[in-house]
Design brief:
This protein is α+β, with helices and mostly antiparallel strands. It has 9 helices and 12 strands. The protein starts with a helix and ends with a strand.
Length: 391
Amino acid sequence: MIFFRKINYLIILSSLAIVLFFIYVFLPDTFVLSNPYSKDEITREVEKIYNIRNGVLITKNMGNLSGLFDTSDKYGQWAMEHEVRRVKYLKDWEKERGIKFTNINSTVRIKKIYELKNKIKVSLEESIRFDYIYVRDENPPVNSFGVGLRHYLSLVKKDGKYYVYSDYYTDCFEDAMQRYSGEIRDIEDTESCDKYEDIYTSNILTEKISYNRQRAVLYADKYCGAAWGSGNDFKYNKKYSDYNGLGGDCTNFVSQVLGDEEGGGLLEDNIWFCSGTKGEKCSGSRAWVNADAFKEYILSSGKGKLIKKGTYKELTKSMEGCEGGFISKLQLGDLICYEKKGKTDHFAVVTSFDCHGYPLVNSHTADRYHVPWDLGWSDKGIKFLLIHIKG
């Protein structure tokens, strides 16, 4: 029964994330709550709920989640179980990486708000700042990263207090959480690193590639979207179409980072390009926006070279030539491809390194700013492709 509820919730969560996008985009901004509720009041209450939840991610005292959700209905129960799984996953990730979260704080921006069948319906952006330290360091410096989530939240008010009736969002930890239950009581080679593994044929490159890594990183930071740390007032580059809700925007964003004149400046061609008539948003070719097509293009065109494909353990294993494993070969502006069950699932760009030299990445869907590269991707079936962009 627990497994059945878990699968049901994950299916519903994925489906309603798409619904969330269309409501977020097309519902008129003028469709707002009238008194006695106010936008400021709802903002304060949602931030209060989310920051209590964030406190549980630090303390692991999951009993504090019980008072946030309307568990008299299955949707509230599912929403609470989802948060329980988040706590369990982050607890294990902290332990495995030797780090400790010291502060997690959310701010929200209400986009649309209305009342329907005694429920307060809210579409919003949540910007979360995570601070962490390495537990074995003496006088450890604080590392920070940001995540941006888009929610379709339903609240109920009982006896003067707000409770979460349902909360649908595309969670940046979703993939890694699936092996955990939602029950509160249930908590608990010889090869050299010097060589690159080139399994793709470079058959297009005939001239020197010019790639500006510094501008690529600045672009990725500026247009990172809803994540804490992002620039441009938490907005994407308005020149480009937004594919959230239409399969995801991660590959479109990485293509922008590489190819926009404000970014890395890689030359487009008749396969990888983004175009649009005057006054319209730029729409990308299949190789620009589709993860599988982009992977094949970037590696076969000669613009990128595969450093190594493997599991987390394979890529971080210390070996001759580099103590940090293949992952230490990544440079700013390089890419990480996330492959699930043999299918390309996500792309991110390397934008920084933390105090231990651990690669940090930016991406869209969900929006990430300087996030540890493997966070949220801990399933054993996940493989990573480390891709060096030439130039």
